[in-house]
Amino acid sequence: MAALVLASIATLAGAAETFRNTLNGEVLDLSKAEVGKNPDAVKQFEKTGKNPLNGDEAAVQKGKDEFLVACAGCHGHYGKGKIGPSLVDDYWTYETNMTDAGLFSTIFGGARAQMGPHYMSMTKTEMLESMAYIRSIYEGKASKAKWLTLEEKKALLKKRKAKPDAGDDAG
């Protein structure tokens, strides 16, 4: 019996995050996309659902370049919306996008209207880098940034206080 319990715990500890289609909840087949140039980040992300590239300046810069090619046509060059919604404020069309796993699922598998799946045109690494860029330009309340840890929220508030034109959690 003890061996069975230990085996179950080991299985749960090594379990990967389950990524689901934003609209219908079906499990996404992540094998459809290439991994890309950062397999360690992808492995970590697929296990935890938290983007390890958030805050990585090199990844953010790559993500900005990828965003301009793959996303800016609909979400605007600064992510503030155009045909598609803003990606920098507190409002998310799909509440699940407030988490890294949810945002990845929407990018990977698509959503309504013009938001088609990007698993054929972007690698998983490129998706994570684009997400890191999107998270870096967030202007909404730090308290609503579910992808941030408490320490990261405090750091964001501190950074914003240092910039007089930056957003804050007032109001």
Report on this structure:
Residues 2-13 have low confidence and may be disordered. The protein has helices at residues 2-13, 39-48, 57-70, 72-75, 100-109, 124-136, 150-162. Helices cover 44% and strands 0% of the residues. It is built from seven helices and no strands.
Provide a concise account of the structure shown.
The protein has 171 residues and is an all-alpha fold. Helices cover 44% and strands 0% of the residues. It has seven helices and no strands.
Query: With helices defined by DSSP (H or I, 4 residues minimum), what is the helix count?
Result: 7
Low-confidence stretches: 2-13
**Span from first to last CA?**
55 Å
Strand content: under 5%
Major beta sheet summary: none
Order of helices and strands: HHHHHHH
Shape: globular
**Fraction in helix:** 40-55%
What is the count of β-strands?
0
Structural class given helices, strands, pairing?
mainly alpha
Q: What is this structure's SSE topology?
A:
Blueprint: H1 2-13, H2 39-48, H3 57-70, H4 72-75, H5 100-109, H6 124-136, H7 150-162
What keywords describe this structure?
171 residues, mainly alpha, 0% strand
